[in-house]
Amino acid sequence: MALAKAINESLRRALESDPKVLIMGEDVGKLGGVFRVTDGLHKDFGEDRVIDTPLAESGIVGTAIGLALRGYRPVVEIQFDGFVFPAYDQIVTQLAKMHARSLGKVKLPVVIRIPYGGGIGAVEHHSESPEALFAHVAGLKVVSPSNAADAYWMMQQAIQSDDPVIYFEPKRRYWDKAEVDTEAIPGPLHGARVVREGTDLTLAAYGPMVKLCQEVADAAAEEGRSLEVVDLRSLSPVDFDTIQTSVEKTRRLVVVHEAPVFLGSGAEIAARITERCFYHLEAPVLRVGGYHAPYPPARLEEEYLPDLDRVLDAVDRSLAY
Description:
Layout: H1 3-17, E1 21-25, H2 41-45, E2 50-52, H3 57-69, E3 73-77, H4 88-95, H5 98-101, E4 111-116, H6 131-135, E5 141-143, H7 148-160, E6 165-170, E7 193-196, E8 201-205, H8 209-221, E9 227-231, E10 234-236, H9 240-250, E11 253-260, H10 265-276, E12 286-290, H11 301-304, H12 308-319
Parallel strand pairs: 1-2, 1-3, 3-4, 4-6, 5-6, 8-9, 8-11, 11-12
Antiparallel strand pairs: 5-10, 7-9
């Protein structure tokens, strides 16, 4: 099924299995969401479970916090990545802190879904990648699936978590299809996964860039180079052990994400792996990402976003050491 459909099916399963699960957001009900991710849920579960909210992100998240305090498990949709900032105060000063503030007595099982990233030709504030802002905040879990199977199971695990989870959905991958086994036993929510074995260099990515890295590995294979691709899946916490094991084998690492390189998640990964693998590395850890500039108009986004050539260039530079 498509990635968007997988999330829909996962939400449906959660609504069916737990009456305390609620879905909230702008246009998530009758419309089914602007990407139709919640399509059909309002009709089947009613307006008390799938709730159309006012256009007020801070109010949406604040209400979800109150509901979680009363025992519910709200799943909140922020319609687009750039719309999350009115709710940033509620997320980082309330949602992320309540567990510690109450010395562990209060849990806030809130999932915040954020479609993010570019590649869809959208207008301003509709193609941003703010994941590092949330990964920096203690008390939040931050994840991003790259395929339909992970989208299904990571949503199940996020809803079941007693900690707040920021669930970043790669909107340009919504229509990518993959096999989804809804009866499988999922791996850990915060575990990275090697999705392609290789020996010469490791590519680490998450969300929308995993597919690109697999395409890069295909292109490199035509030149006789063997690249390993690691899907990080989680940005807080990060599964550094899986990355380290891969880098100790390949001795080189390139981290790829859509977000700006400057202070992006790749910076933390580069620093940690340099500390852990200093005597294994044969080249500095390199990063490929967006530029340190506001996301451009749609006609320029292909110049802004990492592509096959930019990642291959980083691969060439790493292998040249």
